[in-house]
Description:
This protein is α+β, with helices and mostly antiparallel strands.
Amino acid sequence: MKNTAPAIFAPDGIGDTKPINQAMLDWVHEIGTLTEPENIFWCDGSERENEFLIAESLKQNVLIKLNEKKVPRSYLHRSNPNDVARVERFTFICTPTKEEAGPTNNWSEPAETYSKLHGLLKGAMRGRTMFVVPYIMGPPDSPLTKVGFEITDSKYVVLSMRIMTRMGKIALERLGNDPKAEWNRGVHSLLDVDPARRFICHFPQDNTIISVGSGYGGNVLLSKKCLALRIGSYLARKQGWMAEHMLILGVESPEGKKHYVAAAFPSACGKTNFAMLIPPKHFKGWKVTTVGDDIAWMQVRDGRLYAVNPESGYFGVVPGTSYKSNPNAMKSIARDSLYTNVALTDDGDVWWEGKDGPPPAHAIDWRGNDWTPESKEKAAHPNSRFTTPMRNNPALDSDVEEGKGVPISAIIFGGRRSDTVPLVYQALDWDHGVYLGATMASETTAAAAGAVGQVRRDPMAMLPFCGYNIGDYFQHWLDIGKRLTHPPLIFNVNWFRKGAGGKFLWPGFGENMRVLKWVINRCEVNGGALQSPLGWLPGPHDLDLEELDIDHKCVAELLGIDHGEWQKEIAEHKKFFDSLGGVVPQQLLSQRDQLAARFTE
Ligand code: GTP
Ligand code: SPV
Ligand code: MN
């Protein structure tokens, strides 16, 4: 096997912080015996360690240093061109039975899968360094917070984990020496980055993840989609909480009243942008703050839903990010950032499609080839990403470290739909809201390998991330509702509806504040709405469209409900539920009947 990650040799005092927990040490020993690394590097998350790893990564061309004046302390990483996104086809939930994984997951039998993966891992780290990365997910004093360890042979993974999680000593201290402590075991090896030997496997019953053959974020930062969502959702159901693919934002009115909102949009459908929204001029005195941009862990407290962000950094889509669309993201990634698969300019800066200003006359594209504005290829990969600490976000919410979480007033579902789905509407109650989530659909994006732009059902934006049977997941949502005396109101949004000319009808980005304000008004019980077959819809004067240059006709189109389109949509709901083979709770089936009936009233 080609050595894609040659060993590094650390001086004394770096890479030697061994944990004291014997169960942990035994596991590392076991994986070491299997993978036969040249040496073991025990990470402590320190500044000194980070500097050493960066220096070694530069030597091995894992990273390219960017111009210190333009983007201080920031680096470019180019992935293998065959490895630029999540691979849903090679992602498996390995529960003891197929039923537990359910109809929407790839399942494979645990013993067989372990044995296959151990075969692939045998001797896989020869000539490489095995890094042991301790981390926690969640604010240090949250009862939901989890300890994880990731073993990896990738320096890029270690450097990314230090940004994305609370990494190092904090986790060793939390783990302590209890041999029975609960912690997640993650094993990652690049192998030779061959798509034919690429598998991302989850063993929820063992709190274990094994990922091989990839170096791309969502496949290898095992804290994120693998632990915080797939294993997380499995644990959440067992333990009575929720692990969701949701951003969390705070919104404060000029009067100083604050609400928190969680929103589930599928991959590359606008979570990071919505979480960092800056209200337009007209909304003087309104303030939006970010708690999280991708994942929410939520629990019931005193009959309300409270959310924490388990992560400590953002792994965000780069293309389209500009001072016009998302100034807070631009400020966040102006330093201390890892860029993956963007273009490199001749003066050592980064560039991508949609960045402010004119394109550079010459650059090196994401594959390392010469690029000019005349080139047919994109300079940055459509799923190029930034990795940046949340501390860099000027709009970071002051309660981001609050262990009990922030109280959620509204949950918003949303997808990328060119037609059918209005800009915004509100569910009639919790169960109806669960139905909206369960039936939501979105056009596929570059965040996952495969065709782009195809409408598919993506319940609660969790299709690729639910670690167990989707029918049980729906039931869990319904059960949580029963425990809430003050449930969040539930909404559906669609920033992506297109007009006859194929152009987006809604300006989006900061202007989404107008929709958010209506949502908040509804939470405050002072927002007007009209009843429609779908639920509550803003009337022509309920949305604050002051100072927005938009046609009345556009607004009517955005809020319009086309009965023909909805007959088809309801038929698609039925088809989807039928395809799940009888696991859908009765309440949701009857929600569909009620929806269909409202159209005939
Ligand atoms: P993941 O990190 O994959 O989970 O993506 P995400 O849901 O955080 O999406 P993100 O905010 O990164 O946006 C993805 C793409 O959608 C980017 O190219 C954005 O520019 C674009 N986008 C985000 N918000 C809007 C919007 O309101 N309107 C339009 N038209 N595009 C948007
Ligand atoms: C997503 O695809 O939803 C992401 C990016 O947030 S990744 O971490 O790669 O999954
Ligand atoms: Mn995501």
